[in-house]
Amino acid sequence: VQLVESGGGSVRPGGSLKLSCTSSAYAYSRYTMAWFRQAPGAGREGVASIARDGSSIYTDSVKGRFTISRDNAKNTLTLQMNSLKPEDTAMYSCAARGGPLKTLEGRLYNHWGRGTQVTVSS
Prior knowledge:
Layout: E1 3-6, E2 9-11, E3 17-23, E4 32-38, E5 44-50, E6 56-58, E7 66-71, E8 76-81, E9 90-97, E10 111-112, E11 116-120
Parallel strand pairs: 2-11
Antiparallel strand pairs: 1-3, 3-8, 4-5, 4-9, 5-6, 7-8, 9-10, 9-11
């Protein structure tokens, strides 16, 4: 399974970005997908996860600001990020797992993209 992220960049606080992740996975719709991020000097953090049925979970710091979605027909995962803050600055990666459970535990994902950088700064 290959995962390729795009859409990162630099934005001012309060701005928006939309990240995308395209997958080569056969039967993509069967995978649980997620976005993770890692800031310099920090550990990896689960941001949002979306199950096969489209239900989703978020880490508390992004609730109400970020929206995860998926288009199974296009094998695409997206993360709409609004009201961005400097603390959202990180490398964002998408991940996939074969099980049905939504989770923000990175150790439970076995397919990863290389990431796309998001920088929020004035």
